[in-house]
TrEMBL record:
This is Uncharacterized protein. It comes from the Eukaryota. The lineage of its organism: Eukaryota, Rhodophyta, Bangiophyceae, Bangiales, Bangiaceae. It comes from Porphyra umbilicalis (Purple laver). Residues 100-120 are annotated as: Disordered.
């Protein structure tokens, strides 16, 4: 979520009927909206949705010969479905995502088990750019509870919310640990300078410690570009994304020969707002040797919704990084 009055109609998102439970990943079609303030610079990604038609069982309607009484068919035994646990359901969602992104798994002679992509398939040059509000911290939900924002009162966090934040922190730390282990991670927010550190210290203290320990860079796009682009908040992240990718590229190309063909740079952008999608493509869409992979989360999530989304994201981060083409993914409730 952006902490500014950013134009929310930058991109119109239309999705096919298929819905995956518990924050499943779905590849939508992003259609540019007709707005002069925030033009788009990318080609819409085709939908990966499929609708399976169930085959009807054959029923014979032939009449029996005269004089013979047809035998009564034996009713089929009732099928009892076992309840599906939440963990198993999320695992099924992750399998559907992996299948849609990478195709069905290869068949083997014996039983198979899901495997994580090897480190050799992860690109060497990549960066993960994370939004903060409603992407790491459910700020909107905390504001409705009077715990964050200008109307917040200095009081203790209720135990029910605190328990949810503890579970959320586990998922945030899993995401950060995996992203740091694979490469570069940076947080880019439209909130003011210092907000991420302050809110993490209060609501996600373990995340606050991790950010300091691993020296993860936190950039306020507002503080950097509000003076020059006060009337264009949508452009703050466009310029900041471009700055950070240029900085990373300069560092990675130091010591390499000019004759060498650089490996494509994989940029993964995670955010809840359509302006994050716009900023990623507007900043990097025409950049050579750059692959853009955008993961759009649900807007204004509750603590539990964000926890489930990050769980699915962590389970599929390696797969997303390993793909050798541009990608737009959206979470669905």
């Amino acid at each position: 979520m952006e902490r500014s009055s950013c134009c929310a109609s930058v991109v119109t998102q239309t999705c096919e009927p298929l819905r995956l439970a518990h924050g499943g990943l779905l590849a939508p079609r992003f259609e540019p909206a007709s707005t002069a303030q925030c033009p788009t610079h990318y080609v819409p990604t085709p939908s990966l949705n499929t609708v399976a038609k169930a085959a009807r069982p054959f029923v014979s309607r032939a009449k029996p010969p005269r004089g013979l009484t047809p035998a009564k068919p034996t009713p089929p035994a009732p099928v009892v479905k076992a309840p599906v646990a939440a963990a198993a359901l999320l695992s099924q969602v992750a399998e559907k995502v992996t299948s849609k992104l990478c195709g069905p798994p290869p068949t083997t002679a014996g039983p198979t088990t899901p495997t994580t992509p090897s480190l050799s398939s992860i690109p060497k040059r990549h960066v993960v750019l994370l939004d903060w509000d409603d992407s790491i911290l459910p700020t909107s939900h905390l504001e409705t509870l009077g715990l964050a924002g200008e109307a917040a009162t200095p009081r203790e966090v209720p135990q029910t919310i605190l328990r949810g934040l503890v579970r959320l922190e586990v998922r945030v730390l899993a995401l950060l640990r995996r992203a740091v282990a694979l490469g570069d991670v940076r947080i880019v927010t439209n909130a003011g300078a210092g907000w991420c550190e302050q809110s993490a210290s209060r609501f996600l203290p373990g995340v606050s410690d991790f950010l300091r320990k691993h020296d993860i860079k936190i950039v306020s796009a507002r503080s950097r570009y509000e003076t020059q682009l006060a009337s264009e908040p949508c452009e703050w992240k466009v310029h900041t994304f471009r700055d950070e990718v240029n900085d990373l590229t300069c560092k990675s190309e130091q010591g390499t020969s000019s004759a060498e063909t650089p490996e494509p740079l994989h940029v993964v952008v995670v955010g809840d707002a359509l302006s994050d999608v716009y900023a990623a493509h507007a900043a990097l869409g025409d950049r050579p040797s750059t692959l853009i992979k955008v993961v759009k989360l649900l807007e204004t999530p509750t603590v539990g919704m964000l926890t489930n989304q990050l769980r699915v994201l962590v389970d599929n981060l390696d797969t997303i990084l390993g793909l050798r083409h541009n990608l737009d993914i959206a979470m669905r409730a």
